[in-house]
Amino acid sequence: MWPTLFLNRLSASPFDELRRQMDRLLDDFNVGPARPSLLSRAAYPALNVWDAGDALCVEAELPGVDKGDVEIYAVGNELTIKGRRAAVNGEKRTYHRQERLCGQFTRVVTVPTEFDTERVDAVLKDGVLSVRLPKAESAKPRKIAVQTND
After folding, report:
1. What is the pTM of this model?
2. Which of 10, 14, 71, 77 is 20 to 30 A away from residue 127, measured at CA?
3. Domain span including residue 25
């Protein structure tokens, strides 16, 4: 085991080692890892985007977010998901570790084609937001007839 551990240490970059040390230091102070927070613009909500032929589909993970706390805006080829995850109500708590954060978030996604903003639909079920973006007519492929020069 020692040689494997030794080789892993040699192959790690100095930045990886610094990150590990910072994570350990911040964990000792109960602050959490030295990474962007879950509610940062780049990380939350986690999402998938795919092309379903006549529409683009977006799924975003929004556990603990109520339907009334989510706003969706669509323009051109951008989808904006804004919302708020409420704090846990109840008795006063002393956390030993808190990774499930609360607060406001905004995520803007640029998709590869324009979509029909009048026909966008969204469903929030079991903590997953599903958004269907029907492609704009101008973005759909059009078959072109080939002519001859007779």
Report:
1. 0.64
2. 77
3. 1-35
Transcribe 54-97 into DSSP letters.
SEEEEEEE-TT--GGGEEEEEETTEEEEEEEEPPPPSS----S-
Residue 51 shares a structural domain with residue 25: no
pLDDT value of residue 18: 81
Reference 135, options 150, 149, 118; nearest CA is 118
Tell whether 27 and 93 lie within a shared domain: no
* Number of domains into which the chain is organized: 2
Helices (H), 1-150: 2-11, 14-28
Q: Do 48 and 75 sit in the same domain of this protein?
A: yes
> Judging by DSSP bridges, how do beta strands 121-125 and 128-134 pair with one another?
antiparallel
